[in-house]
Amino acid sequence: MFVYGCIDKTNTRFLYCCFPSVFLGVLDTVISVVLHPSLSARLAAAWCLRCVVVSLPSLAAPLLDRCTERLIALKSSPEAVSGYSLAAAGLLGSIRLCPLGVPQGKGKVIMSLAEDLLCSANQNSRLSMQRVQAGWILISSLMTLGPAMVQPHLRRLLLLWRSVFPQNPKDLDMERSRGDSFTWQVTLEGRAGAMSAIQSFMSHCGDLVTEEVLQQLLPPLPFAVALLAHLCAIMKELVADLSSPDYPPSGALFLLPSLCHPVDLILLGPSLQESDHRAIEEQFLLSNGIPGGSLEYDPHAIYHMPSEGESVPTPMPPVYTVIQAAASLFGVLLSNMPELQRTQILEQLVESIKQTKGSRQQSVQLAALSALCYFLKHLASNHIDLGPEETRRPCLTLIVGALESRNPWLRCAAVECIARLAHVVSETLYTSSLAQASFDKLKVARDVVARTGHSLALGSLHRYLGGIGSTQHLASCVAVLHSLSQDTTSPEVQTWALHSLSIIIDSSGPLYYVHVEPTLSLLLTALLSTPLSHADVHRSLGRCLSALLNTLGPELQGSGELVACQRNHCLLACSVMQENPDCLVQAQGISCLQQLHMFAPKHVNLSSLVPTLCVHLCSPHLILRRAVLACLRQLAQREAAEVSEHAMTMAKDGHEDLKMDVNMRELGLEGVLLSLLDRENDPQLRQDVKETLFHMQSCTGVSRLSFWLRLHKDILSASADFAAVASVDTTQEEDSEQCCSDSVLTSKKEESSTPSVSPRWHTRVFSMECVSMLVSQCVREGGAHFNVVEAQEMKHKEPDRDFLVLHLQDLVRMSFMAATDHSEQLRLVGLQALLLVIQRFSSVPEPEFPGHLVLEQYQANVLAAVRPAFNSDTHPDVTATACQVCSAWLASGVLKDPSDLYRVQQLLLSSLSKVQMMKETSSVYSESTTTMETLAVLKAWAEVYIAAVERREPEGESGCNPGDGLLSMVQADISTLSQLWLSALQDHALLTLPPECSHQLPSPGGAFYTSETSDAARPHYLTSWAPILHATSLWLSSTGFILADPDEAGSRLSRPVTPTTMGQEHNNREPAKTPEDVNSERFHLILGNILELAIELISVLHRLLLMRESSEIQLLALEVGKQILDAVQEHVQERRRSAEVDDGAEEKEKLPEFGEGHDTGGLVAGHSLVLAALEMCLCILIRQLPQLSPRLSGSIIGRHATKQPLSHDSNLLISASLSILAELPSLCSPEGSVSILPTLLYLVLGVLQHTAGRNPGGRLSLAVTSALQALKAIVSSPMSRVEKSRASWTSLLRSSTSSMLQSWDSDEEKDRIAMLTALTIFLLSANPEVMSEPGLQNASLQRFYSSTDSKDPDEQLKCYRLILSIFQHPAHDVVAPYICELAPRVVRHLSHADSRKPQSQAELLVLQEGVRLLQALIIASEEQNRPPVVSMVFHLLISFLLDENTLCSASSCSRALHDFGLQSLTQFGASHPDQFRHLMGSSTALRSRLEAALRGNQESLKPKPRIVRGGGQGSPSIQLKTNFL
């Protein structure tokens, strides 16, 4: 047992690494105890071996082999069979705690050995029992390894289970009639072991429990059903077991934790409380007859996980386990029996209690109450009715008899049962009668027993029923309990009454507000008047105060007089509790202050609270330390800096009660908390310490950078190998100031008179994690933390500030110390920290040496830190992390010397060689671990290759490039790496297949995984495939996607690589193509010819859009999707062109048959690329515009989205989606295009409708312009003109136009120009039949009329431009009706220009655009109809002119209109001279106005006389041009 006490993680790792010979001697000693005659010794040795494996996972497989070999060799020794089987079971049970696992072959060995033991059990009667036990315990422990290990042996397991039990009633009868006691003992032992194995199988291999497996496991159950026919007999046996317990009354303690409410256990004394000396206290309890657990009571517990708070499983003695199992089974069976039989059984229990006397009666009562409680629990959980009054009566009799028992355990159990009884009955009248009975009893009873039991019953009823149902009952309960709480003659009554009052306060909630003031006064008075010797009363008072604080909650922040008084009373009560000598009361006082700080932080004085907490940090009482750390954790979340300052002030003032082993003056509160991690073993307390430190560092880490780094450096350097560090440091060139730093690594610590103990490994791991967190904090802050020059300048200006880059030396050294430690966990976090340092500081320049980086001086440190990780005995996860560090180091650009690159490359080369030999060598770890290490190596090489390619300079540039040396190193092994990369990608592709395609996976597995470990290997592939794919694509691009054929000369190249030819031999010889040709064809080759691949890729992109919220990722996914569709579209067009060439011109009408939909137009989901693309785009559009969905349009989401403007990213996503939708008709056959056209039009017009709002400045958003472009592409699709689909397209387009016009009328806030543009697109781009319908023509013209008559000149201008496009359309028969109707409206509007001159630039542009529109009308008109229009234009232009009198005073807009009219007249007159001369000769007024305008224009062009000042005469030396016409 002494050896077991020494086996923990720290000691094991230290002995194994520093003193291997001593460790092997200790291990041999432990293994020798396996053969000890005592079962307890064998179990202790087995558990020791389990602890060794948890500490050193690499020993799992060797120790397991050793146990199995010795078990086979010593099968004739009962002790050896028992001991080595227990040791093997313990080892198997520990493997689930070792992430590296063991090889699959170990499961086969264990299964074969177990089968051999079970089959040979009958050969030797002296070994039968041991072999049966050993066989089943090995099988049961094998189940803990999970489904992957058990799956190959499932069929054999089912046969073993089937052979243990009788298969039919005849076998059962024959079995009963023969066999002696020994045979029955062996048989029953075998069945017990088989049932344990089944239980372990169901617990750990749930994925294997299929319907077929269940059908084979069920044969034993019919016999159990046959036994259930004698249910009454079974119940009689259970009642007999419950009424004749074979244990002393004090042994009933084991039933209480599962029977009573956890809060009520505190009333039963300190025996059930947590403490640091729990093991010693349990030994004392055992000496007093109170049961304790031990492994020897159930050897199968050797492979179980310990319960929370336990280091070893502690199964109870069989006598107690039988009672507990009987009580549990009683509750299940009784709840399924008829109500009449329930009453009889319960009455039988009552009679069994009456027939016993004295202490035995108490044991029977507790067992009966336990059974009754299980019964009531089962009824409540399954919503089963208890039954009539006849069934309730015996239940109440059982409870009332124990409610007034002198045994407090019975009273607590009875209180729990009465509350559950009321809960099951769930009748207000019945619950009120129970409460009234307790009221009546409390009024007349004067004995302590009755008053305690019934007072607690009131609180328990409130707990389960949420209050009795009325404020009257609440007031009555509070009044009674207040009265009992003031009974100073009986501290026990006070204790129970106050505890019940705390339950009522908690369960009443806001209903208790009216009772807060009297209760608070009662508590304060009791705290001040109750003697300190009555600790139980003070504890109950503390619980009441805590419940009151929860009830008041945030109300304590108020500023009213009443709230202030209540707050002061609470603070006073907390102060009184802190002065109590009892540790539980002090802990409650601290917890209450913690609650006050939560609800009213401004009113808690930290200057007095923090010193109190610091004093209790080293308290010998676990409960008090828990309360202190919980409070500190909360304080650190809000006021971390203040807490640290108050603690340091107290340490400097020399507080007399502060007695610690750690110097708080130097290390502060943070150092004290770190030291607690070495002393504390309680998991919850340690977690609170870590969270407190995390909060304090996150708040003060950047401002106190030097302090935190020095603190962690001291922790990490306490056990550092100074010789190793010194040898590394001598290779560095550092400044004298850095060499004289206070780092403990530069020299050994001075000899101390007091012995020092190195921090434990988990403390150092935590400290290294904190260092990484500090780096991450500085990364978030950025700035001078990663700039040496800026940091030095700011440090000079502000000496109090600190920057991370100035501590780079300490960061590297701490990472080095952790990475070279003997603890594997510490090595992992050290390498991860070193990786973080490389990533963050690799680009930081060294200011003293231009052209160099600051990390160059630490090359030796990095190499020395990673080199041990590549040793043969290193754990694979450490090697994998070291590979990641090496790849980052090579890719960082810090290494420039070829020799330095070579040294790091050799480390990766050693791992690469190991990868190539992995399948040929055996491993002590699982196959998934081997996969993880292999992929880590390949990923590291891939990242190095990616960095080398990216750093290579473009061809043609001269100079030395450091990336060339790195690339040449990788190129030396690229042939091997490329094959391994392709194999890894093929494995990943196989593992990502959906479950329905699992039958396509190769049975032996892939290149780097086995079929049994495929599930465990998937996460490793998931984290590695991306860089491997990137590197592979770069390599294939560098070769032009051409693989050299090994069977031919170098001048001959094989055909381009495709997914179906990668890694395969090429027998077809084709001429070589240039890389440019291959690059232009490969996307078409892969996606055009393999439609299924394109569909699958679109589906993958769709899933990616559903899972990722980043707009950048979504845009990239849509871009990739568009490229896929472009490739397929190119393929379809190529087929159509080929068909045109082959079939001739006479068959052209059949050419568009190519595409999805074929002749029927049907598109099948899952097999249609168009539908897959449509779903992908729909996903984006519905997310950005929920109102597009009929389900969401009327919801809160849809209404909210309507009011919100689209962001820039949303516009980009919508635009990308619409561009994809516009291409879909070209991928379909004519019939297929008709199938998708309604959806496309709905989406495009829906986007237009919901995004075409009135924007400032009249600009159209990107979503609107994209919708208009997509609409034009769709309506002008060639499919709309194919004879087969022309009619359908026309009908659908006409319907869409009508729907758009209707939606336009229903929403006046939409941009009318956007809708007019859509109408123009339908008119000019669609088939002529679409807009030829008279109703659509009239509705469209009305929209144009509305815009031409608009008072908004911007709208008029854009409308004129749309009309201009209509007038200029070459198909005059299509636009003729619109020209005839719109031209007069335009002329009418322009005719008012003479009377209403333009007042703004926009109005001027409208008039100018109107003139251009009329000029276009002239061109569109027939020759005989042009003269009137020409005359009208001349009149209009002359009306724009100004005479010499008004020209000088005219506004800028009128002057601009005049200039435009004059210039247009000049050009128009030149193009129509005859009409111009005829008009001037026939109209004197027009001629006079034109002449006046010309004279005014000449006058304005004359130079003004220059006023020469100073008497100077003469002309200027430089003549400026003033006439620009």
Automatic annotation (TrEMBL):
UniProt keyword annotation of Calcium present: no
Segments for region (Disordered): 736-758, 1050-1077, 1136-1155
Top-rank taxon, per record: Eukaryota
GO BP of this protein: endocytosis; intracellular protein localization; retrograde transport, endosome to Golgi
Keywords: Membrane, Repeat, Transmembrane, Transmembrane helix
One family name in Pfam for this protein: HEAT_HEATR5A
GO cellular component, one term: endocytic vesicle
Compositionally biased intervals (Basic and acidic residues): 1066-1077
InterPro entries named among the record's database cross-references: ARM-like, ARM-type_fold, Laa1/Sip1/HEATR5, Laa1/Sip1/HEATR5-like_HEAT
TM region(s), chain numbering: 13-35
Family according to the record: Belongs to the HEATR5 family.
PANTHER family, per database record: HEAT REPEAT-CONTAINING PROTEIN 5A (PTHR21663:SF1), HYPOTHETICAL HEAT DOMAIN-CONTAINING (PTHR21663)
Protein name: HEAT repeat-containing protein 5A
Species per Swiss-Prot/TrEMBL record: Eleutherodactylus coqui (Puerto Rican coqui)
